[in-house]
Amino acid sequence: MAMRILVTGGAGFLGSHLCDRLVAQGHDVLCLDNLFTSQKSNIVHLLDHHNFEFIRHDVIDPYKAEVDQIYNFACPAAPGHYQYNPIKTIKTSVMGAMNMLGLAKRVGARVLHASTSEVYGDPEVHPQTEDYRGCVNPIGIRACYDEGKRAAETLMFDYHRQHSVDVRVVRIFNTYGPRMHPYDGRVVSNFIRQAVQGEPITIYGDGSQTRSFCYCDDLLDAMMAMMNGPDDFHGPVNIGNPGEFTIRELGELVVDIAGGGSELVEARPLPADDPLQRKPDISLARRQLGWEPKISLREGLERTIAWFKSADMSQYRPPTPNY
Ligand code: NAD
Ligand code: UDP
User: Fold this and answer.
1) Interval 183-224: pLDDT, tens
2) Which residues are catalytic?
3) Could you tell which of 192, 210, 211, 252 is best to mutate to test the pocket of ligand 2, judged by most ligand atoms within 8 Å of the CB?
4) CATH of 178-211+243-278+295-315 given 3.40.1550.20, 3.90.25.10, 3.30.1490.190, 3.40.50.720
5) What does the pLDDT look like over 275-293, one tens digit per residue?
6) Which residue(s) pair with 113 in the sheet?
């Protein structure tokens, strides 16, 4: 059945892929975004569809619409950009969540919140399970994002308990793919942009820190399964690819696939509070959603590098100087 679906952050990397899928399924899609870390080119192909609408709006201000489902994705996701204006970042997470929950309560919509593995901070439990409460520095430079996302999770479950709002919380682990902003500053987009342009690959620290990388298509399968899944399953649920790689291994793989022979250089010290390890335990997602990722890191990087090679990078404006 066709539904009215609001996607906040809908012009971003993940949001725009989600809008593609929802429009293709025939839903009436409202894409709300302030274009802070994205640009209209991600959704330009959707603008002429009768069942797609773009709304330029900031989620820290209330928004009203008659909708059945809300995917709350609006928030800068790359450390450099979310640290540029940290007060705005925490407002976006917390006030954005409140505004979407207020809307969900008024119109009886189901709301799915894009939370993050950053709620675990620099984890002492490895791999991370959903019942681990995390190790976040509440006054550090990542706190605007980490604590903002933690408070948003709190709001989700308080609105659920107090007002019976139907919430879904997904903790996303590092996800990559086509349409990542080339000046996003995250490791995958930086390494690919650098490799494609024949520049040195900038490793922070000695490159022994680890991450687990999920291809966007796999992630979106899980997000939609969660939104439309069992009535009594609200999460939080980890979604990510449990394959674990050092940042140096990622750099070597990107250069191997992209060609061009870029060198790996230790460009700067590890940033403050940068997690040393990260890997999701996805047993709960397997059990509750019947989901697991299908796309290997090599295959996902091949697709992403092909997109970066075809993109006109001169058309992208860096959202902030921090990339
Ligand atoms: P992105 O930066 O491409 O998308 C975020 C979108 O939100 C952008 O289009 C941006 O313009 C918009 N936005 C930012 N602040 C806003 C505001 N105040 N009002 C309205 N729109 C605003 O990043 P993404 O990777 O697509 O991330 C989407 C969501 O998933 C974010 O909430 C992010 O925290 C979460 N997430 C992503 C990852 C990942 O690895 N990609 C990991 C964990 C969590
Ligand atoms: N990183 C790096 N070089 C870069 C960008 C990032 O070595 O050009 C490192 C960063 O310090 C971190 C890891 O790669 O250890 C992942 O960083 P990213 O910003 O993608 O996301 P995070 O998981 O830290 O939020």
Assistant:
1) 999 999 999 999 999 999 999 999 999 999 999 999 999 999
2) 145
3) 211
4) 3.90.25.10
5) 999 999 999 999 999 999 9
6) 72, 169
